[in-house]
Amino acid sequence: MLELAVARALYDRYPEFTEGRLAKVRSHVVSRQSCAVVARQLELGRQLLQRGADIPADELERLSKNRNVLAALLEAALAALFLEHGFERIEQPIVAAFDPRIEYALTSHVDYKTELQEALARRGQAVSYAVLDVEGPPHDRRFTCSAVIDGEQVGVGAGESKKAAEQEAAKQALVSLGIEETAA
User: Fold this and answer.
1) Does 10 share its domain with 98?
2) Which residues on neighbouring strands pair with residue 131, listed in sequence order?
3) What is the DSSP code string of the chain?
4) Domain containing 72 — which CATH number?
5) What is the Cα–Cα distance from 67 to 179, expressed in whole angstroms?
6) Which of 107, 128, 153 is the last residue of a domain?
7) Are 133 and 143 in contact (CB under 8 A)?
8) Same domain, yes or no, for 140 and 103?
9) Do 103 and 119 belong together in one domain?
10) What is the rounded distance in angstroms from the CA atom of residue 17 to the CA atom of residue 10?
11) What is the pLDDT of residues 20-46, one digit of tens each?
12) Distance CA 136, CA 154 (A)
């Protein structure tokens, strides 16, 4: 439902965008990271704290701030709303809740991995990513990854997920290679 609502909103608002650009924006808007941001704005973590009586307090506190948990809570809430009210009644509120994420995706460069991959393809090169380090307990990991081109490490990034760390590594690789970013 989330993807459908956002895709339709993007298609209606930006008919001049290519399919590829619409897909990139939609992908960012419905990502786990964006869902967690919207869940925080809707205070779903606070709701979990108030309703999680069967969970130990320290565990509940940690869960209420965890990005993956918040994103899952939002997705579950949307599914419940869909089952209760149907798509037509919840489509516009979904789009309204995600409007700031749409604006962010439109005005910010959000996919450095694709940018790097496309730039390297034009040069006849390819990039691979390697996990350099993983820290923290399973529920609170921090990843460090590198972007490797022709056997040379050209960027290193860290993040709360492997994907986020790879994005940061790709961003650093773009800078170190002097590849200009194209419009997102």
Assistant:
1) yes
2) 145
3) -HHHHHHHHHHHH-TTS-HHHHHHHHHHHTSHHHHHHHHHHTTHHHHHHHH-TTS-HHHHHHHTT-HHHHHHHHHHHHHHHHHHH-HHHHHHHHHHHHHHHHHHHHHS---HHHHHHHHHHHHT--EEEEEEEEES-TTS-EEEEEEEETTEEEEEEEESSHHHHHHHHHHHHHHHHTPPPPP-
4) 1.10.1520.10
5) 31
6) 107
7) yes
8) no
9) no
10) 9
11) 888 889 988 998 889 999 999 999 999
12) 25
Residue 70 domain flag:
yes
- Split into its structural domains, the chain has a count of 2
Q: What is the pLDDT of residues 37-95, one digit of tens each?
A: 999 999 999 999 988 878 888 888 889 989 899 999 999 999 999 999 999 999 999 99
Same domain, 81 and 119: no
